[in-house]
């Protein structure tokens, strides 16, 4: 057999999940003491750490905005994040692309007019890479922003979905994502209204399949929203009990 | 959640009132929306994670963790970041830097006069970049920026000590934010979470020699004084780490409890937890 079988006849994937199953998610807010808000987020073997600073005085005087906050996103990949050690330069186009996606997504969700003449910095560090970089970055950044007390219209929850042998599959891992035949679609939604904040796909997918794949991804986003909400409530209750004493 | 059940005053039990972003608080049109909320289709939603508060018909959500947001009359400690024309920009741990106008500082010697062009040219002799100032919030600008003033003998430049940064939420607003502790250390507890711990200098000495207000030179600080300053600073650090309210009382309690330990051991996990519990117990006993 020339290629690896991504979906077994029994309907199981390489890591033993079913087609509509998410990877295990674990996350925690307020992990760094120096940042205004921070979060550690794991989705399967993809692990990210996010620090949010601000709203604070804009560092570059030229670009500040008189009636709303500017959002600055920096995305960093640890050299040890993949099985092959590799150091990426800061100007890597792939990294800049992801940070600009994250930035665009949150510019819509953050209530920027509440913070005129300020800047919100989001620093994302990918510690371990196993597929679904963009979704984990967005989910982790949401958690960190909520932790920082930044006013947002809603959470932003992201999820990927693809299609293997005509079956829509949820939350692709590294192996599935790197396979050429598997299209992968990243969707970010605002769960309260169901509005789509981001929709991204770089491969070909037949139009007839698009709807199924998107529905699955949106379903995944809703699950993630629940997880994030639980993490926020946990962190809030924890802090409230400490402050209340 | 029933909004009417929330008592109008700030209740002690926070946990039952916690909401997360996007939670609908009320759709009763009688309520007005305050900070931390937004309206959509006649419904008030929360925009932050925090505790719902209601004052008569005004509903707001106070985030549990947030940068300092100023109120007029707040005592703050800030760091000069920029010297501009007729103004300094001051980092006060807020959403944007505060502004200290040349017209709202005291001249050395307490001379009352208009600030001239010559004063404008020698602004760096009053405050230069990196200096720490002890100031009060005078007013707000239209965009929410803070305007500070140092028009009092006790405000001005800070020296002879060290800065400790804490969560702004832990510093309650109180009648006095400048304290001389019995151990011979002065503390300035800024509401913005910046705390200055310094050697005690009698106020009479500063009043007698008005040039001292803008002096850049430290006085002689003996080794034992340095140790006391470090001890107080570590006490504040540990109170901050374990979320104990930071007031002169809690600092004194922490200091007294810390005396059997060496200064460098105060921040180790066991000692810090132990001291914080002692302080909490004493505060509870007092109240």
Automatic annotation (TrEMBL), chain A:
The keyword Ion transport does not apply. Its main location: cytoplasm. It comes from the Eukaryota. GO terms for cellular component: cytoplasmic exosome (RNase complex); nuclear exosome (RNase complex); nucleolus. One of its GO terms (biological process) is U4 snRNA 3'-end processing. Pfam families: RNase_PH, RNase_PH_C. Residues 21-150, 154-220 form the Exoribonuclease phosphorolytic domain. It is found in: Cytoplasm; Nucleus, Nucleolus. Keywords: Cytoplasm, Exosome. One of its GO terms (molecular function) is RNA binding. Component of the RNA exosome complex. Specifically part of the catalytically inactive RNA exosome core complex (Exo-9) which may associate with the catalytic subunits RRP6 and DIS3 in cytoplasmic- and nuclear-specific RNA exosome complex forms. Exo-9 is formed by a hexameric base ring of RNase PH domain-containing subunits and a cap ring consisting of CSL4, RRP4 and RRP40. Belongs to the RNase PH family. This is Ribosomal RNA-processing protein 41. It comes from Coemansia asiatica. The gene is SKI6.
From TrEMBL, chain B:
GO terms for cellular component: cytoplasmic exosome (RNase complex); nuclear exosome (RNase complex). GO terms for biological process: CUT catabolic process; exonucleolytic trimming to generate mature 3'-end of 5.8S rRNA from tricistronic rRNA transcript (SSU-rRNA, 5.8S rRNA, LSU-rRNA); nuclear mRNA surveillance; nuclear polyadenylation-dependent rRNA catabolic process; poly(A)-dependent snoRNA 3'-end processing; TRAMP-dependent tRNA surveillance pathway; U4 snRNA 3'-end processing. Keywords: Exosome, Nucleus, RNA-binding, rRNA processing. InterPro entries: Exosome_cplx_N_dom, Exosome_RNA_bind1/RRP40/RRP4, KH_dom_type_1, KH_dom_type_1_sf, NA-bd_OB-fold, S1_domain, S1_RRP4. It is found in: Nucleus. One of its GO terms (molecular function) is RNA binding. Signal peptide: none annotated. The keyword rRNA processing applies. Its main location: nucleus. Residues 71-151 form the S1 motif domain. It comes from the Eukaryota. CDD domains: KH-I_Rrp4_eukar, S1_Rrp4. Belongs to the RRP4 family. This is Exosome complex component rrp4.
């Amino acid at each position: 057999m020339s290629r690896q079988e991504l979906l077994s006849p029994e309907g199981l994937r390489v890591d033993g999940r079913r087609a509509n199953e998410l990877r295990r998610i674990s996350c925690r807010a307020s992990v760094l003491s120096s940042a205004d808000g921070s979060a550690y987020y794991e989705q399967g073997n993809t692990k990210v750490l996010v620090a949010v600073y601000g709203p604070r005085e804009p560092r570059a005087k030229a670009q500040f905005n008189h009636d709303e906050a500017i959002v600055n996103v920096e995305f960093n990949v640890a050299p040890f994040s993949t099985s092959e050690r590799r150091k990426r330069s800061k100007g890597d186009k792939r990294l800049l692309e992801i940070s600009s996606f994250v930035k665009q997504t949150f510019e819509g969700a953050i209530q920027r007019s509440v913070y005129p003449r300020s800047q919100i910095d989001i620093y994302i560090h990918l510690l371990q890479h196993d597929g679904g970089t963009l979704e984990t970055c967005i989910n982790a950044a949401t958690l960190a922003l909520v932790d920082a007390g930044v006013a947002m219209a809603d959470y932003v929850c992201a999820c990927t979905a693809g299609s293997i042998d005509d079956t829509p599959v949820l939350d692709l891992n590294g192996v599935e994502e790197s396979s050429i035949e598997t299209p992968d679609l990243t969707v970010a939604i605002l769960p309260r209204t169901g509005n789509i904040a981001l929709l991204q796909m770089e491969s070909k997918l037949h139009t007839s399949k698009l709807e199924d794949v998107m529905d699955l991804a949106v379903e995944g986003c809703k699950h993630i929203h629940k997880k994030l909400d639980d993490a926020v409530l946990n962190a809030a209750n924890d802090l409230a009990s400490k402050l209340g004493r | 959640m029933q909004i009417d059940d929330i008592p109008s005053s700030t209740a002690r039990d926070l946990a039952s009132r916690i909401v997360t972003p996007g939670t609908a608080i009320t759709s009763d049109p009688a309520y007005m929306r305050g900070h931390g909320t937004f309206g959509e289709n006649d419904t008030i939603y929360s925009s932050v994670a925090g505790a719902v508060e209601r004052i008569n018909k005004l509903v707001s959500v106070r985030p549990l963790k947030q940068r300092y947001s100023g109120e007029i009359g707040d005592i703050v400690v800030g760091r000069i970041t920029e010297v501009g024309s007729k103004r300094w920009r001051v980092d006060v741990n807020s959403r944007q830097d505060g502004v200290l106008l040349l017209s709202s500082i005291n001249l050395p010697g307490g001379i009352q006069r208009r600030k001239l062009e010559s004063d404008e040219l020698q602004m760096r002799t009053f405050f230069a970049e990196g200096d720490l100032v002890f100031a009060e919030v005078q007013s707000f600008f239209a965009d929410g920026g803070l305007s500070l003033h140092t028009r009092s003998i006790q405000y001005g430049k800070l020296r002879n000590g060290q800065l400790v940064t804490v969560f702004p939420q832990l510093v309650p607003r109180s009648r006095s934010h400048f304290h001389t502790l019995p151990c011979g250390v002065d503390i300035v507890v800024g509401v913005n979470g910046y705390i200055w711990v310094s050697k005690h200098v009698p106020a009479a000495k500063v009043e007698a020699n008005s040039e001292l207000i803008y002096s850049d030179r430290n006085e002689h600080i003996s080794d034992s004084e340095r140790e006391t300053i470090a001890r107080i600073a570590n006490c504040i650090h540990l109170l901050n780490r374990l979320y104990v309210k930071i007031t002169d009382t809690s600092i004194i309690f922490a200091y007294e409890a810390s005396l059997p330990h060496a200064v460098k051991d105060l921040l180790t996990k066991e000692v810090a937890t132990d001291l914080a519990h002692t302080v909490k117990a004493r505060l509870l006993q007092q109240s």
